[in-house]
Design brief:
The complex is a heterodimer of chains A (795) and B (54). Chain A is of the alpha+beta class and 795 residues long. The longest helix of chain A has 34 residues, at 724-757. Chain B is mainly alpha-helical. The N and C termini of chain B lie far apart (69 Å). Classes of the chains: A alpha+beta (795), B mainly alpha (54).
Chain lengths: 795, 54
């Protein structure tokens, strides 16, 4: 058995480890063409004009022929650009590759490469670049191609076109916080003299300050705090009591009592408490909303599809937007392109990779006349197909739009907040009315002030704040560990999971990395021979053999025949070599093994075979360790030929389920849920998307978070699978932290209530108690979350 | 002491100016991207003609 020769080379430019010998320039190694080009531009900056006018760096290497032809179609470009007139065009392009400050530098200096570009600005976190260019000098297609040439390929998908049409409404949260903060500061300043005491001749100020406080409270209540009222009202109409109701009640009572006290000269009112409350609440909301926008969870199959497809009409090819694709049109699909609609194969050797739809990783061969379903990716030579169903009716789209795959948000688990707030409101109202009834017979005004004071003090701002602060801190911890949650509620769902369902292909196995095992030792020359033959083939198995053998010297090939689906017959340096299936290489049908095999014959002598096994993700053992506490199941669309290998992990056969269709997967999850389980589904492809949506917590696992991920609640980077047990424990910690902070806030509330029910709550007590409880809660949650993350080794 | 009325008016006016300056910045997207400018400022603005090796 041979081991591959790995020399760790680091990129001269960015320091990443890079594949040996891929990018060498002036005897320096580079990890990527982008880095190499930045170096070239830097080192040869004296010759920059040469670059600008006559040379596009890397032009011949990375561009696939005619790939961006569709960007010449005005109808397509119109949807992709932000603005265009007869002189300039402005476009925003999404470039997943942006990863370092050099990227920013290079992309913002595009105008040095082509003077037609006026301006380019990078948004690093969103991985977007805004380009403004003169459309008389350079076309949109040329701009895109220029970026591809320098190693920054924009991701232009059908999703972009649709996204343009449904832009999110702009929320004014920051503005509201600014207003509330502004008023809070001023009201506090104006309230100070009142608390510190005013001498007799300064009494006229009291009235003036009072009126100013009312004035400042107005925008806080009616602009910044308006959403609490509308939310409380909407929930009341739906007969739901949520946390917004006591908050709105508190705000309203604070405002009314403040105005009443000031107008009747009874006291200074609670204007500072009111403004502080709204300000802190909005800050909490902002913290909760500030999720991680560099990962989009709203991606669907459309982001996987191209914008246009090559249609053959009257012997000529023309790019057509996908939405205009009609039944009966002939389309041309090249290597690595996606088949957009169900179609019949007319010409060429189709080897379709359906891993996206079915989860099965090995490409399927299709014969002429067969139907090829949408979502498959052609591997190898280009093929011609005739569309039989438009994109909107294809198998893939139907699968995606299936009613069963859609889930309403109502049957979600309730968060702690939602469950507690119901009881909270009932108890709060009971105390308030109790105090009112107690004082009413003896002292009417005292009863009224006790009633309002209870509503003010018990206002659950700590309850409203503890969740966003804890969960955002937890989300940040998960984020750093490459586990991206959709929102803060997912942390609580994670904590309550008791059943974990795993998909096989792509989830516990990696799609890209298979273990190759060779059963016969090859000497140095033989390895070179096999490497040479395989490096000429685009077949995925050939690629893996090349990877396995490591970098070898390429020999001269005098004859080369690749028979699709069978193998390769080649003559290299006078040696006759046959590589491929046992049927092809050995002539007869040999012993059939379970795994995929590639046999080798050199000069008529059989040299054994390579066998390919799925590579289980690192950390699978750690996940299986969860067996003790969780019910772990495997749900796979594949055949059961790996059953024996998997038994080593899962121990019990009842946990393994093979040959499951997307619908069956969904039904399986629903069955578990009916049995009262809280199910977490971990999957990767579209075939899992139904199950992911049905489960209580759908986790999409992926090796590249910028790639397609099915609709899910969380995205897990494959490298972090081993941390899953720790994630689960940490989510439980986070929920415990919320419980404790709730207790803290209850303690404050009880102290405040003891003042309130007597009707003797002074504005000063309220003004001290409320910010103090808020500060305690916020600092407790942030420190406790940090400590918990440290304890679980996730910090 | 009535100068206090004037001073409070001034301070509120000043605060309002800052508030509107903030709104202006917000509306013109100055808070849209809080990361890239901090990197951008570290990048040197070398002219293409200048020689630089390594």
């Amino acid at each position: 058995m041979s081991s591959r020769t790995d020399t760790a080379t680091t990129c001269y430019h960015c320091g990443n480890t890079c594949n040996d010998g891929l990018f060498i320039y002036e005897e320096k190694n580079f990890c990527c063409i982008g880095c190499e080009n930045v170096f070239k531009i830097l080192s040869k900056s004296g010759l920059c004009n040469y670059y600008s006018y006559n040379f596009h760096p890397g032009a011949n290497r990375s561009r696939v022929e005619k790939r961006f032809e569709y960007l010449d179609e005005a109808a397509i470009v119109k949807d992709l650009v932000d603005y265009t007139d007869d002189k300039i065009t402005i476009a925003t392009l999404y470039i997943p590759y942006i990863h370092c400050s050099s990227c920013i530098w290079l992309l913002e200096n595009l105008n040095r490469i082509d003077p037609g570009i006026y301006y380019s600005r990078v948004d690093f976190l969103k991985k977007q670049v805004v380009v403004r260019f003169s459309n008389n000098v350079i076309t949109f297609r040329q701009v895109v191609e220029l970026m591809v040439d320098i190693g920054y390929e924009p991701l232009i998908s059908l999703h972009d076109v649709i996204k343009q049409q449904q832009k999110l409404p702009k929320d004014n949260l920051v503005k509201k916080i600014a207003v509330a903060g502004f008023c809070f500061g001023n009201v506090m300043l104006l309230s100070f003299p009142e608390y510190l005491g005013l001498s007799g001749y300064e009494q006229s100020f009291r009235q003036f300050f009072g009126w100013l406080n009312i004035l400042f409270s107005l925008p806080v209540v009616f602009y910044s705090g308006r959403e609490y009222f509308s939310s409380a009202w909407n929930n009341l109409r739906k007969k739901v009591l949520n946390i917004d109701f006591p908050l709105a009640l508190g705000i309203a009572v604070l405002f009314i009592r403040t105005v009443a006290e000031i107008i009747t000269h009874k006291g200074p009112g609670f204007a500072d408490t009111l403004c502080g409350l709204v300000f802190f609440l909005l800050v909490g909301k902002f913290v909760q909303k500030k999720t991680y926008h560099h990962i989009s969870f709203e991606r669907d199959y459309r982001s996987f599809f191209p914008v246009a497809v090559q249609v053959i009409e009257e012997e000529r090819e023309r790019p057509v937007p996908l939405s205009d694709l009609k039944v009966g049109q002939r389309i041309h699909i090249r290597h690595n392109e996606i088949i957009p609609g169900d179609a019949i194969l007319l010409r060429g050797n189709a080897k379709i990779d359906f891993s996206f739809v079915t989860g099965e990783a090995i490409p399927v061969t299709k014969s002429l006349g067969e139907i090829v379903y949408a979502g498959g990716r052609q591997v190898g030579e280009s093929i011609e197909l005739e569309v039989v169903k438009p994109v909107s009716q294809s198998y893939l789209t139907q699968l995606w739009n299936n009613e069963a795959f859609k889930r309403s948000q109502e049957d979600r688990m309730q968060t702690f907040n939602e469950r507690v707030s119901k009881y909270f409101i009932v108890v709060l109202l009971a105390i308030a009315f109790g105090a009112l009834l107690y004082w009413l017979p003896s002292d009417f005004t005292r009863g009224l002030s006790a009633f309002t004071a209870v509503l003010i003090v018990a206002c659950p701002c700590a309850l409203a704040l503890s969740t966003p602060f804890t969960m955002s801190a937890a989300l940040g911890v998960f984020d750093r560990n490459l586990f991206y949650l959709k929102n803060t509620a997912v942390v609580e769902q994670l904590a309550r999971i008791d059943t974990i369902v795993l998909d096989k292909t792509g989830t516990i196995t990696t799609n890209t990395e298979n273990n190759v095992i060779s059963y016969d030792d090859l000497n140095h020359v033989q390895r070179q021979l096999i490497y040479t033959v395989c490096s000429n083939s685009g077949h995925p198995l050939s690629r893996q053999i090349c990877d396995f053998l490591g970098h070898q010297k390429k020999l001269e090939v005098s004859e080369y025949n690749e028979i699709s689906g069978k193998g390769i017959y080649a003559q290299v340096n006078g040696h006759m070599i046959k590589v491929g299936s046992s049927e092809f290489v050995l002539g007869g049908s040999e012993a059939v093994h379970q795994a995929t095999e590639v046999h080798m014959v050199i000069n008529g002598k059989y040299h054994g075979y390579f066998t390919f096994k799925h590579h289980y993700r690192d950390g699978l053992e750690d996940v299986i360790q969860l067996n003790k506490k969780y019910n772990i199941q495997l749900l796979s669309g594949d055949q059961d030929h790996e059953k024996n290998d998997l038994m080593a992990y899962f121990k019990r056969e009842e946990c393994l389920h093979f040959n499951q269709s997307p619908q069956q997967k969904l039904n399986f999850i629903a069955g578990l849920q009916r049995a009262g389980n809280k199910v977490m589904m971990i999957g990767d492809g579209l075939n899992d998307s139904g199950a992911l949506k049905q489960s209580d917590l759908g986790v999409a696992i992926t090796d590249n978070v910028n790639n397609f991920t099915p609709g899910s609640d969380a995205i897990l980077d494959g490298r972090s699978l081993a941390k899953l047990p720790r994630f689960l424990r940490f989510s439980k910690d986070a929920v415990n932290i919320i419980h404790v902070s709730f207790l803290i806030s209850l303690t404050y509330n009880l102290i405040g209530l003891s003042f309130a029910v007597t009707g003797a709550l002074s504005p000063l007590t309220a003004a001290i108690l409320m910010p103090l409880s808020t500060a305690t809660i916020i600092s407790f949650t942030s420190i406790a979350t940090h400590v918990a993350a440290k304890k679980r080794k996730l910090a | 002491m009535s100068i206090i009325y004037f001073l409070i008016g001034c301070s509120i006016l000043l605060a309002l100016i800052f508030l509107f300056a903030f709104f202006y910045a917000q509306r013109h997207g100055q808070h849209d991207d809080l990361y890239t400018p901090s990197v951008r400022i570290l990048l040197d603005e070398k002219e293409p003609g200048e020689e630089e090796n390594d």
